[in-house]
Write a structure and sequence with these properties.
CATH topology of the largest domain: Rossmann fold
Strand content: 15-25%
Radius of gyration: 19 Å
CATH architecture of the largest domain: 3-Layer(aba) Sandwich
Number of domains: 2
Largest sheet: 6 strands, mixed
Order of helices and strands: EHEHEEHEEHEHEHEEEHEHH
Number of helices: 9
Bound molecules: NADPH dihydro-nicotinamide-adenine-dinucleotide phosphate
Oligomer: single chain
Amino acid sequence: MSNSDSLQDMVTCMGQPVAGNPTQFMIERAFAAAGLDWRYLTLEVPPENLEDALRGLRAMGFKGGNFTIPHKVAVIQYLDELSEAAELMGAVNCINRVGDKLIGENTDGKGFVQSLRGITSPEGKRVTILGAGGAARAIAVELGLSGVTGITIVNRSPERGEELVTLLNERAKVAAKFAQWEGDYAIEEATDIVINATSIGLGDADARAPLDYNTLTSEMVVADVIFNPPQTIFLTEAGKRGCKTLDGLGMLVNQGVIGFKIWTGVDPDATVMREALEEYLEL
Ligand code: NDP
């Protein structure tokens, strides 16, 4: 690596969970498969120590890192530059070190879109997104930048939903509207892509997103951000109605693929990464 002479071959994940995580397992497998003697370290950093941790990251010559909850927004103040998407989202989950500069990126939404492209192109599509949290925000902005025609944000709390819709309309230049989530939500007929970007289903295979599932039609692509367990009730119900489905593992693999390329300049083997994730999650 040309830029590795004065730097350690290390990247890091700061935030929670600690004690190893699926991303660490997946990225280290990909380093090995690519013949790179690199390390991906998972480090627990409490919010009050984030500034010191960033100073340490610079001092120890890390090539970059992932930042997760609760640091995705707070880390921005310690960075030198942001990518367009990270600036629009107001959240960073990936840092790249270029010389002395730390550049913030957001690979969550890009990972989703890359995974989606495996079954359909986003251009010209009408999208419904369930949720308005960090994952929904990242996906919605990236889909807006990828040329979707319109986005409906469906959320339980109106404040978060309206805020995201305003961001999409005013900054991401995509037509967006808000729908309040009460009871079983009915998907609009004209929808092409439906995405669950809530935490419903995380660690609970029996959790059911409240939808009128009979409003899903076989022409729709249905995607879930939940990767553990990846087969959610949401996807099972969509599959029963003939929809093409996409699980959250694809998003996780692809955000890893994008981060790997940013840090190392090398294209990793995505199949090795998916297999590593499945092994880690005992699927
Ligand atoms: P946030 O806490 O920021 O947002 C959670 C969202 O889920 C909010 O919109 C919240 O609504 C909604 N929600 C939660 N419970 C319910 C419920 N019972 N009924 C209706 N809405 C509900 O979380 P994130 O956006 O950061 O993460 C969401 C999920 O995405 C997590 O499970 C995470 O693991 C997953 N994820 C997956 C990735 C991948 O690579 N596959 C990457 C990043 C995240 P409200 O605003 O009303 O509270």
